[in-house]
Each structure stands twice: as structure tokens, then as C-alpha cells.
Design brief:
Strand 4, helix 4 and strand 5 form a beta-alpha-beta unit. The chain folds into two domains: 6-128, Response regulator (Rossmann fold, 3-Layer(aba) Sandwich), CATH 3.40.50.2300; 132-229, Winged helix-like DNA-binding domain superfamily/Winged helix DNA-binding domain (Arc Repressor Mutant, subunit A, Orthogonal Bundle), CATH 1.10.10.10. With 235 residues, the chain is α/β, with parallel strands linked by helices. The protein has nine helices and twelve strands. It binds calcium ion (CA).
Length: 235
């Protein structure tokens, strides 16, 4: 990962904020700090953060309210809640409103950083960063962001669904995918739906990417079971 992981810290006590910023930056995170809930919500609606570190007790819109609003907006950023109170009710409230983890002040810095690292492992932002932006197989190269494919036959602009289907094959390289599974993942259809669309898609992918579409090496039919993508047919 070349880009620094962006973290938003919401903490109204300056000395605590300072200490956390220092330690997070030491760990290589890029920290944005605000000291109230309104600013936190404004920042979160504008830019992508990998993690939110949120103090519970804030002037105005408090941590619970920020949490609640984010989840209502469908924002699934991991949230580490910081609380000065240790009452169980806070812990329960925090979890109900959608915080992923919490720490009670004063906390150990090492534990804090461990919790941060743990939550980042399931951060959608980090997932997106880790996902390969291009994929090669044979003499084909597919840019998964621009949807451009370079093949022996020239350059092809792929459709959204074609890329979605390719991504599914790439993610399950070497494994058999049933037609039902593909229909569900790519078209969001019930696995029982009868459709030729899927088979037509595979025919098209073979025309794009196979040396001999009639004898596919990459996008193989597994009789009675589904399809299997093989990245290195000779390997
Ligand atoms: Ca506070």
C-alpha cells in the first residue's frame, strides 16, 4: 500500500487528541482531527476514511449520535468509540448504535493501536486499496477501474456486468462456480432463475480473451456443475 491510511479522530480534549495524533502518525497513519460531532459528520460525508476514532462525550452532537447518523446513512466505516465513563450502559449503547469496538479512558496506548489495527483489517477502505486494480492472464490485461481490456485482438471497453463477472472469476481462480452462484453474485438473481444470459456472457468473454473460443483454456465449462476460470492453463 503506497497511500497512507486516512483516519478521522474526533476528540474534544486537546491533550488526549495530541497524544493520539502523535502515536497514530508514528504508526504511519494519516490523521485528520476534529473536536466536535458536527465537523466529524461533515468530513465523513465528503471524504473517504478507513477508520473513525470517536470520543463519546462531545459538546453538541455527541459520539452516539454521530454513530447513529452514520449507520442510518449506510456508512459502514469501522468505529472505535472512546469513553471516559465505564458504565455498562454506555458500552451497550455504543454497540447498539453501531460502534465496532470501544476503549475506556484512560487506556493503554499499545492496546489502542492494536484495536486500531484490528478494526482496519475489516475496513472497506483498506479492502478497496488492497484489491488489484488490474489483472493479467495469458496475453490479456484488464484494468478493473477503467474497464479497458487489452487483448491480442486489440482494445475492448468492457461493460459493468462483464467486469463484475470477470472479477468474480478472478476472485475464485481455479474453483468451480455454479451457474446459480454466478447469477446470484453478478445479476443478483435467485439461483433458481433459468436464464441463457449467463451462458451468452461466457461465450462473449471467450471471444474476447481466448485464442480459440471453441476450445476455451481460461473460461472452462465444467459439465453439470458450472464454470471454472483457469489463470495459467499451461502452468
Ligand atoms: Ca470528550
Amino acid at each position: 500500500m503506497t497511500e497512507k491510511t486516512p483516519v478521522l479522530l474526533v476528540e474534544d480534549e486537546p491533550h488526549i487528541a495530541q497524544g493520539l495524533i502523535f502515536n497514530l502518525e508514528e504508526e504511519g497513519y494519516q490523521v485528520t482531527h476534529v473536536d466536535n460531532g458536527e465537523d466529524a459528520l461533515a468530513y465523513l460525508s465528503r471524504s473517504g476514511f478507513a477508520l473513525l476514532i470517536l470520543d463519546l462525550m462531545l459538546p453538541g452532537v455527541d459520539g452516539l449520535e454521530v454513530c447513529k447518523q452514520l449507520r442510518q446513512q449506510g456508512n459502514n466505516i469501522p468505529i472505535l468509540m472512546l469513553t471516559a465513563r465505564s458504565a455498562d450502559q454506555d458500552r451497550i449503547n455504543g454497540l447498539i448504535t453501531g460502534a465496532d469496538d470501544y476503549l475506556t479512558k484512560p487506556f493503554n496506548l499499545r492496546e489502542f493501536l492494536l484495536r486500531v489495527a484490528g478494526l482496519l483489517r475489516r475496513s472497506p477502505w483498506v479492502e478497496r486499496q488492497n484489491k488489484a486494480k488490474s489483472y493479467r492472464f495469458g496475453t490479456n490485461c484488464i484494468d478493473l477501474e477503467t474497464h479497458q481490456a487489452k487483448t491480442d485482438r486489440g482494445s475492448i471497453q468492457l461493460t459493468e456486468l462483464e467486469v463484475k463477472m470477470l472479477q468474480l472469476f478472478f476472485d475464485h481462480e481455479g474453483k468451480v462456480l455454479s451457474r446459480g452462484e454466478i447469477l446470484k453474485q453478478v445479476w443478483d438473481m435467485s439461483p433458481r432463475t433459468e436464464t441463457r444470459t449467463l451462458d451468452n456472457f461466457v461465450v462473449r468473454l471467450r471471444k474476447y480473451f481466448e485464442n480459440n473460443p471453441a476450445k476455451p483454456q481460461f473460461f472452462r465449462t465444467v459439465r453439470g456443475r458450472g464454470y471454472r476460470f483457469v489463470r495459467n492453463p499451461d502452468g
